[in-house]
């Protein structure tokens, strides 16, 4: 609608709008309410009409005929206008649909995998629902303003805060919240001006007023308008604050995701806070690596089990498993579970089922916690020790070893050989964008005094032209068909080594062995945030620029465009000063956008429909590239992985 | 090597003016201010044109020597800017051909082919015919102006050829990709690749997906710009990190690489690190690799020592500034050598060739005598 008004001349603008709004009433009745110059124009029109009538009468037409003609004309115009409106509406809908399609970016190759955005949306939705309603905070994932809707907690407290750093009162973008459909009747835009004091949203408006104390009443009105605007636009999931950027919102288009979120929300009371913390750590890649993730999870499980109370009517051995399942469901939302985590969970569930129902809860819980500790020690610490002992026999004096990325076992192995065994080894750490895990590894080794060389995966050719003796690799998991599932880039390294007849050794705890089989890296993988690849300082590419603010930036941008839209819609109703303010603001916005655009070339890649960024985390190394796998059971060829899985199934 | 080597021979004003231009160009090359083999080739040709118009010589061999000296000087300034030496050699070949023709026309009985390499084995045991010098003296006054004209015409032709190289390549290359194919290019800085992809999309109306590797750390900017340009031309584009190449290779239909120089053995130097790994991956997956190269990128050199041809950059692009006591060694490879066994086909503006056939194309355009510009003629 606003577009059509903008197109038509400014003089007829308001009259057209009114005509559209009140189709039944005549034009003359409309004219009375007009501003003075508009009235004048209307009068002139009427005069002209009278003149025309006089002319026609002189030509020999009766007044009735004239009136009939005029009526017909009016009707014709009306129908034309309606048609146009319909057309515009259609266009608008189409564009909106298009936008929806576009913003849910899925690359052609990896459409079957869950994107980070989807995961993030879920996490954001969950945490905002679970965490306390009184605080709003900025997390790494974006701005989070918790909204507790009545559907969940019964209260209709609504918090909002101003976000934009700009000081001007109009610029304070209100953090609009989706009112729960049960309590807040959607506020129609027409009633907004008076809604500040009436309607059920008194509570909300006062809350907003407290928050944005500096802003005037009209801003509050705008805030409310934006609330209702959004309420109409988005599918409402109770408890989700709408400060999630629209890109994330649109991830909720898929019904399966919505249902899974709803399911999680239903059980949200069951979720232990330490699990929540772990989830957020995992989601933000604060804890990385399959072993550290597994250890962290086991530690949290110990806490969870300690705090666990068996509800009446069931036994611990029956109920704890399902209770843990709820926790695991949440953990899964952070990132797909690592193989180590999956194996540990399977073991734990088995342990729980083995508990004699007659044992008292306290003893059972204590027993379980001890067992978890023992498991971690046996499967990880002692296993690592055995692996290091075994692998150390491979490393002679003055060997050159190439490794990739960062691995806990490998770092320990290399340190052990260089420091404790005093072997004169040279380590080449190969690294890649965007994670740069190798930097950490290189730093650890260098700080301990090991002879380290650092190179990027693009210089593989040079590295293997040097005198390389061994390639040592860490693993995320080894699949049952012998494929090594590890950080993206590992396969390339192994392949290059194989082609040059350099032995490739993999150090891997048996906890990482998986029953799964997989043939290539595309079918199952984990997608990391594509924005990690967007941020780069081209002049100084080594400095990592986090994309922590990416979502916030996006959110602010979205807010701005929404505000612009809102301003445009308000223009015909509001006074002229308001529109002037708007135009000034627009100027400011465009200049700001200009600033941010020249930072990264790929900024705003979401807007280009045919541009995609793929940031896969893992790849699959075929077994023929691997000379041997060193586990705590000894060194074996990759083809023996299923043997180990079968033989030691009971213990793993 | 300095301009003094030239100035005593040609003390007049015109040559000193040229010498200044040469010196500035040498300085630009040394500072790596001219980027890209295309720009370098064109600028070298412009310089050569000025140089030849200002040059003075008594015999055409003197002119050849002067051009060789200039070429040597430019090569020394930027040893890995191969296109610079290539175009100089091309012009030398044009001159030598002309000399041959003139000598052939002046001597009635000359039927031998002067190039023993291309000639068949039947005349291997024949005594190579000495170039007849006697006829030269009579015709030298007549032909002196001719040679300048010939050289300058050769330069003009070469400039034309270089400027229109993409046309020829596109026509052949488009036939090599099919609809809905997934292509991967590890050389996003290649303008030839970019133009080829865009014309394939727009003129031939093929739909295909292009994977662009990032080429971190030296080429990421180019890669991002490249991806954006492709996407703006409505080509499905995926930016992938360098590490994900192996993971995605199983889905890739063809790998397209741009080249910086193509050697007689069929190997190539690409202007981006990581290309050799990509091509190796492609070989492992039996994915065809085709290289696009203008004829001027063909170099008569043989990469006996690859390390000599690969360029290395500063460490500031691979490692952040760190504690000086805890320094690390690092490598920053800027260019990459792709061996001929990892390339399936070369698409040049004169046709598609197997890497093993490249030497033949090279000797069509160069003369054996000019391979090493720094060696004085014996």
TrEMBL record, chain A:
Which superkingdom does the taxonomy of this entry point to?
Eukaryota
Q: Which GO terms describe its molecular function?
A: translation initiation factor activity
Q: Does the keyword Phosphoprotein apply?
A: no
- Which protein family is it in? Belongs to the eIF-2B alpha/beta/delta subunits family.
Keyword line: Cytoplasm, Initiation factor, Protein biosynthesis
* Source organism (scientific name): Saccharomyces kudriavzevii (strain ATCC MYA-4449 / AS 2.2408 / CBS 8840 / NBRC 1802 / NCYC 2889)
Classification via InterPro entries? IF-2B-related, IF_2B-like_C, NagB/RpiA_transferase-like
Subunit info? Component of the translation initiation factor 2B (eIF2B) complex which is a heterodecamer of two sets of five different subunits: alpha, beta, gamma, delta and epsilon. Subunits alpha, beta and delta comprise a regulatory subcomplex and subunits epsilon and gamma comprise a catalytic subcomplex. Within the complex, the hexameric regulatory complex resides at the center, with the two heterodimeric catalytic subcomplexes bound on opposite sides.
Q: Which Gene3D superfamilies match?
A: Translation initiation factor eif-2b, domain 2 (3.40.50.10470)
Instruction: Name the segments for region: Disordered.
Output: 1-110, 563-601
Specify residue ranges for compositional bias: Basic and acidic residues.
31-50, 77-91, 563-572, 583-601
Record localization: Cytoplasm, Cytosol
Which Gene Ontology CC terms are recorded?
cytosol
Predominant place of localization: cytoplasm
| Compositionally biased intervals (Low complexity) | 16-29
Name used for this protein in its record: Translation initiation factor eIF2B subunit delta
TrEMBL record, chain B:
UniProt KW keywords: Cytoplasm, Initiation factor, Protein biosynthesis
| InterPro entries reported in the protein's UniProt record | eIF2B_beta_subunit, IF-2B-related, IF_2B-like_C, M1Pi_N, NagB/RpiA_transferase-like
Q: Does the keyword Protein biosynthesis apply?
A: yes
- Chief location: cytoplasm
Task: State the organism of origin.
Answer: Saccharomyces cerevisiae x Saccharomyces kudriavzevii (strain VIN7)
What Gene Ontology terms describe where this protein resides (cellular component)? cytosol; eukaryotic translation initiation factor 2B complex
Query: What do we know about how this protein assembles, alone or with others?
Result: Component of the translation initiation factor 2B (eIF2B) complex which is a heterodecamer of two sets of five different subunits: alpha, beta, gamma, delta and epsilon. Subunits alpha, beta and delta comprise a regulatory subcomplex and subunits epsilon and gamma comprise a catalytic subcomplex. Within the complex, the hexameric regulatory complex resides at the center, with the two heterodimeric catalytic subcomplexes bound on opposite sides.
Q: Which domain of life is it from?
A: Eukaryota
Q: Which cell locations does it reside in?
A: Cytoplasm, Cytosol
Q: What is this protein called?
A: Translation initiation factor eIF2B subunit beta
């Amino acid at each position: 609608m606003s577009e059509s008004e903008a197109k038509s001349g400014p003089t007829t603008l308001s009259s057209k709008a009114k005509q559209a709004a009140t189709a039944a009433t005549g034009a003359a009745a409309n004219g009375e309410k007009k501003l003075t110059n508009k009235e004048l124009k209307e009068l002139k029109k009427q005069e002209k009409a009278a003149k025309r009538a006089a002319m026609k009468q002189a030509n020999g037409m009766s007044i009735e005929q004239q009136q009939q003609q005029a009526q017909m004309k009016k009707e014709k115009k009306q129908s034309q206008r309606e048609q146009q409106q319909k057309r515009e509406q259609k266009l608008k809908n189409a564009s909106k649909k298009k936008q929806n399609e576009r913003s849910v970016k899925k690359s052609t190759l990896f459409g079957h995998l869950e994107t980070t955005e989807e995961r993030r949306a879920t996490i954001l939705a969950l945490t905002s629902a679970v965490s306390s309603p009184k605080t709003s905070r900025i997390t790494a994932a974006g701005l989070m303003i918790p909204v507790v809707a009545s559907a969940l907690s019964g209260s209709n407290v609504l918090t909002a805060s101003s976000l934009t750093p700009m000081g001007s009162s109009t610029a304070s973008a209100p953090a609009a919240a989706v009112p729960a459909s049960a309590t807040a009747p959607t506020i129609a835009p027409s009633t907004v001006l008076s809604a500040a004091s009436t309607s059920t949203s008194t509570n909300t408006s006062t809350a907003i007023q407290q928050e944005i104390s500096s802003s005037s009443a009209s801003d509050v009105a705008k805030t409310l308008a934006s609330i209702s605007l959004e309420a109409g636009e988005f599918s409402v999931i109770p408890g989700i604050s709408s400060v999630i950027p629209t890109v994330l919102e649109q991830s909720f288009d898929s019904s399966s995701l919505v249902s899974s979120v709803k399911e999680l929300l239903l059980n949200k009371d069951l979720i232990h806070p330490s699990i929540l913390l772990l989830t957020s750590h995992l989601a933000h890649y604060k804890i990385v690596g399959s072993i550290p993730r597994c250890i962290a999870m086991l530690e949290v499980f110990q806490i969870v089990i300690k705090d666990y109370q068996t509800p009446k009517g069931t036994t611990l051995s029956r109920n704890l498993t399902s209770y843990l399942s709820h926790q695991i469901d949440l953990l899964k939302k952070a990132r797909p579970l690592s193989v180590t985590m999956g194996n540990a969970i399977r073991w734990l569930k088995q342990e729980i089922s083995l508990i004699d129902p007659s044992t008292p809860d306290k003893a059972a819980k204590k027993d379980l916690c001890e067992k978890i500790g023992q498991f971690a020690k046996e499967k990880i610490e002692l296993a690592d020790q055995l692996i290091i002992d075994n692998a150390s026999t491979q490393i002679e004096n003055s060997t050159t070893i190439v490794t990739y990325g960062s691995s806990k076992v490998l770092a320990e192995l290399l340190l052990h050989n260089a420091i404790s065994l005093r072997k004169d080894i040279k380590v080449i750490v190969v690294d890649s964008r965007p994670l740069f895990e190798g930097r950490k590894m290189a730093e650890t080794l260098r700080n301990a005094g090991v002879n380290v060389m650092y190179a990027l995966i693009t210089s593989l050719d040079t590295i293997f032209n040097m005198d390389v003796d061994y390639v040592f690799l860490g693993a995320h998991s080894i699949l049952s068909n012998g494929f090594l599932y590890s950080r993206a880039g590992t396969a390339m390294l192994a392949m290059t080594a194989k082609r040059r007849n350099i032995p490739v050794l993999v150090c891997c705890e048996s906890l990482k062995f998986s029953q799964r089989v997989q043939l290539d890296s595309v079918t199952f993988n984990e997608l990391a945030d594509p924005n990690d690849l967007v941020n780069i300082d081209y002049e100084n590419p080594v400095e990592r620029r986090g994309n922590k603010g990416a979502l916030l930036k996006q959110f602010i941008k979205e807010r701005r465009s929404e505000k612009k839209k809102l301003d445009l819609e308000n223009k015909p109703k509001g006074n002229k000063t308001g529109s002037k303010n708007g135009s000034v603001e627009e100027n400011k916005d465009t200049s700001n956008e200009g600033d941010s655009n020249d930072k990264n070339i790929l900024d705003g890649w979401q807007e280009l429909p045919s541009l995609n960024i793929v940031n896969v985390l893992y790849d699959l190394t075929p077994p023929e590239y691997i000379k041997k796998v060193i586990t705590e059971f000894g060194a074996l060829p990759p083809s023996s992985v299923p043997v180990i899985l079968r033989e030691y199934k009971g213990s793993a | 090597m300095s301009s003094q080597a030239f100035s005593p021979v040609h003390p007049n004003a015109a040559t000193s003016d040229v010498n200044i231009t040469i010196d500035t160009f040498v300085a630009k090359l040394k500072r790596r201010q001219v980027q890209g083999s295309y720009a370098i080739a064109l600028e070298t040709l412009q310089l050569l044109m000025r140089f030849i118009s200002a040059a003075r010589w008594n015999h055409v061999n003197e002119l050849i020597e002067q051009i060789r000296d200039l070429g040597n000087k430019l090569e020394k300034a930027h040893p890995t800017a191969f296109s610079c030496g290539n175009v100089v050699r091309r012009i030398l070949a044009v001159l030598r051909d002309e000399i041959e023709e003139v000598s052939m026309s002046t001597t009635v009985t000359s039927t031998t082919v002067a190039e023993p390499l291309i000639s068949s084995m039947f005349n291997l045991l024949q005594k190579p015919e000495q170039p007849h010098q006697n006829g030269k003296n009579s015709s030298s006054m007549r032909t002196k102006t001719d040679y300048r004209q010939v050289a300058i015409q050769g330069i003009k032709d070469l400039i034309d050829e270089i400027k229109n190289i993409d046309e020829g390549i596109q026509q052949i290359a488009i036939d090599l990709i099919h609809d809905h194919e997934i292509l991967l290019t590890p050389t996003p800085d290649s303008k030839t690749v970019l133009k080829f992809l865009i014309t394939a999309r727009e003129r031939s109306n093929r739909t295909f997906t292009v994977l662009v590797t990032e080429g971190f750390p030296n080429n990421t900017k180019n890669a991002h710009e490249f991806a954006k340009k492709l996407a703006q031309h409505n080509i499905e584009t995926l930016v992938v990190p360098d590490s994900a190449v192996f993971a995605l290779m199983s889905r890739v239909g063809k790998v397209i690489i741009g080249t910086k120089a193509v050697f007689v053995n069929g190997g190539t130097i690409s202007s981006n690190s990581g290309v050799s790994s990509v091509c190796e991956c492609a070989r492992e997956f039996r994915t065809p690799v085709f290289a696009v190269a203008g004829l001027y990128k063909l170099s008569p050199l043989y990469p006996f020592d690859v390390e000599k041809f690969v360029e290395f950059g500063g460490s500031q692009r691979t490692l952040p500034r760190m504690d000086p006591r805890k320094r690390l060694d690092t490598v920053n490879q800027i260019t990459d050598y792709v061996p001929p066994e990892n390339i399936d086909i070369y698409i040049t503006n004169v046709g598609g060739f197997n890497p093993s056939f490249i030497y033949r194309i090279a000797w069509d355009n160069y003369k054996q005598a000019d391979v090493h510009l720094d060696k004085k003629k014996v």
